[in-house]
């Protein structure tokens, strides 16, 4: 339920001290506390909030009275994390009534509802994760008199719109974003966030009984997989996290996995590279050249292959070689072999390598 897009190069930024941000759960807790304090006769421009990591932070919130409840809004700051929720408003409405101290939390406008299994919340529940729920409760209990009952509605004015740019529709969270946070902080360039999204998507596939999974790096692979007849429910975008995705499939007992990707990404796997981001490793030329020479590529092709700027260009250069078809079949088998080795042959892997210009090159 991570509100992330695929990892960008910023994940690997290391030239400056990156700023941490605060999670949607922290902002929801801050707004709930600010609204409750207002109803108790104390208006604050900033409220101090307890975080699950044990720290405290001050959060600015705007509060107003609306009939029998108070409403607070805060603008999310994700620090230097490329989070699509950065800059949006998170809000909470609070009703206080006399009664035994207890807290009821629900979602409102712009907060999604879970419609598929395998998430941190049950099907039919608001997508407010367990840790943010506890965070709201702890912060309210700190100020709530023992004879008051609090009803909290978390809302996100632009949540429905923003959710379209997250993985929520794929994960089965409909109607808005998720209220998240395990520490209360947002770590800059969180590679872990995308890992959890991939993990949850794969978990859902297996809970829904899918033993065959198609892993694709991104949009090109996704489109090709659909073209090849894979159902969208069995296709999972994994970006550069090939090794992580394969290991997750093994954890959930996959029987067969398909790797479908454009040649530039797939060739790295043939060289044993399982994080294919170019800032982690980029030996496409060397891997392709070594395998081509081993396969008997004639010397006149060598210079063009070595000087090619992309794997796509290599595919075009060797298209006239009579051994090209057999070579791509061999390379696809090599990719499958490497992938199966990674998971100690826990399942069968079929690799499909394609070119944007030449279509499917090899399948093995």
From TrEMBL:
It comes from the Bacteria. GO terms for biological process: methylation. It catalyses: Co-precorrin-5B + S-adenosyl-L-methionine = Co-precorrin-6A + S-adenosyl-L-homocysteine. Keywords: Cobalamin biosynthesis, Methyltransferase, S-adenosyl-L-methionine, Transferase. It holds the Pfam family CbiD. Pathway: Cofactor biosynthesis; adenosylcobalamin biosynthesis; cob(II)yrinate a,c-diamide from sirohydrochlorin (anaerobic route): step 6/10. InterPro entries: CbiD (IPR002748), CbiD_sf (IPR036074). It is an enzyme of class 2 (transferase). One of its GO terms (molecular function) is methyltransferase activity. Its EC number is 2.1.1.195. Belongs to the CbiD family. This is Cobalt-precorrin-5B C(1)-methyltransferase. It comes from Thermatribacter velox. The lineage of its organism: Bacteria, Pseudomonadati, Atribacterota, Atribacteria, Atribacterales. The gene is cbiD.
């Amino acid at each position: 339920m991570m509100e992330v897009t695929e990892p960008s190069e910023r994940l690997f930024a290391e030239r400056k001290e990156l700023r941490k941000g605060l999670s949607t759960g922290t902002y929801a807790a801050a707004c709930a506390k600010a609204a409750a304090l207002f109803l108790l006769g104390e208006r604050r421009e900033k409220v101090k909030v307890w975080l699950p990591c044990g720290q405290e932070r001050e959060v600015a919130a705007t509060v107003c009275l609306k009939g029998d409840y108070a409403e607070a809004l805060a603008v999310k700051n994700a620090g230097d994390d490329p989070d699509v929720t950065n800059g949006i408003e998170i809000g909470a409405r609070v009703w206080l009534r006399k009664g035994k101290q207890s807290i009821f939390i629900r979602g409102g406008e712009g907060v999604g509802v879970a419609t598929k299994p395998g998430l941190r919340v049950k099907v039919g529940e608001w997508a407010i994760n367990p840790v943010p729920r506890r965070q709201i409760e702890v912060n309210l209990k700190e100020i709530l008199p023992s004879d008051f009952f609090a009803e909290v509605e978390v809302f996100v004015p632009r949540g429905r719109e923003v959710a379209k740019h997250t993985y929520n529709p794929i994960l089965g969270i409909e109607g808005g974003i998720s209220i998240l946070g395990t520490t209360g902080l947002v770590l800059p360039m969180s590679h872990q966030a995308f890992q959890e999204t991939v993990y949850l998507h794969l978990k859902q596939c297996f809970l829904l009984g899918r033993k065959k999974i198609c892993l694709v790096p991104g949009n090109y692979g996704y489109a090709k997989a659909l073209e090849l007849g894979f159902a969208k429910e069995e296709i999972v975008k994994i970006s550069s996290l090939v090794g992580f995705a394969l290991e997750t499939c093994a954890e959930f007992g996959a029987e067969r996995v398909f790797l479908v990707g454009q040649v530039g990404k797939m060739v790295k796997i043939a060289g044993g590279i399982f994080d294919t981001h170019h800032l982690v490793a980029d030996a496409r030329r060397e891997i392709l050249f070594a395998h081509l020479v081993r396969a008997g590529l004639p010397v006149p092709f060598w210079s063009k292959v070595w000087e090619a700027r992309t794997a796509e260009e290599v595919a075009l250069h060797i298209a006239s070689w009579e051994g090209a078809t057999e070579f791509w079949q061999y390379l696809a088998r090599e990719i499958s072999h490497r992938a199966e080795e990674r998971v100690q042959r826990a399942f069968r892997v079929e690799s499909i390598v394609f070119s944007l210009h030449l279509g499917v090159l090899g399948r093995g």
